[in-house]
Design brief:
about 220 residues; alpha+beta; globular
Length: about 220
């Protein structure tokens, strides 16, 4: 087993593979910073190029594009208050005020750290219909737990029907529902998957919870 791991590392730690990752990161940053063009779109556009290279070069390049595009969307979010990708909406809420204070570098650094560590924003709709941030956690499990706690504290009736919507993340929706059951929810749950257009806007992996709350 150890020998197989070493063989795999030797296979990927080559100048060609490292160069492909660097090219993918550079390309992902450019595509991600353009509002309306997501990492998935960038991969779709550049996928044919991988047909002419080794999988050890093509696949790392695609991974670099996808991961870098997640941060690339934060660049315009912080500097121009225009998210380059759906996941960067929350970044614009916190990052652009820093830019107006002359601290754009601090905002970009925070966005980079958050992207690397997998910081998940918790968003909600306020009484005026606007989407506002109500917290940040690291990782999906903590995000689902935060949503379950939010439901536990604010649900008007735990026997009433609720809704869970997700963007190609059925496992996340099931995990959230299990946590809600632990919090005492006994009602019916309507689970739906966002269609492609909405899913592309909210971002892949998104999980949304809808319920009647004590607050408007």
């Amino acid at each position: 087993m150890f020998a197989d791991i070493c063989t795999g590392l030797i296979s990927i730690l080559t100048p060609e593979t490292i160069g492909a990752v660097a090219l993918g990161i550079f390309t992902g940053l450019m595509f991600g910073a353009i509002p309306g063009i997501s990492g998935i779109m960038a991969i779709s556009i550049l996928l044919p190029l991988t047909f002419y290279v080794s999988p050890l070069v093509g696949i790392p390049m695609l991974l670099g594009i996808y991961k870098a595009s997640m941060f690339g969307g934060s660049i315009t979010a912080v500097l121009l208050n225009t998210p380059g990708a759906p996941p960067a909406v929350c970044t614009a809420m916190d990052g652009y005020p820093l830019t107006k204070q002359g601290k754009a570098g601090k905002g970009l650094n925070a966005a980079l750290v958050g992207s690397v560590l997998g910081i998940k924003p918790i968003l909600r709709g306020d009484e005026t219909g606007h989407i506002v941030s109500c917290g940040k956690v690291r990782g999906n499990k903590k995000a689902y737990a935060e949503l379950a706690d939010y439901f536990d504290k604010r649900a008007l009736d735990k026997t009433a029907r609720i809704g869970i919507a997700h963007a190609d993340n059925a496992e996340g929706a099931e995990a959230l529902l299990a946590l809600l059951r632990e919090k005492g929810f006994t009602g019916e749950c309507l689970t739906v998957c966002y269609e492609p257009v909405t899913g592309a806007h909210v971002g892949p992996g998104t999980v949304a919870l809808f319920f009647y709350g004590k607050e408007k």
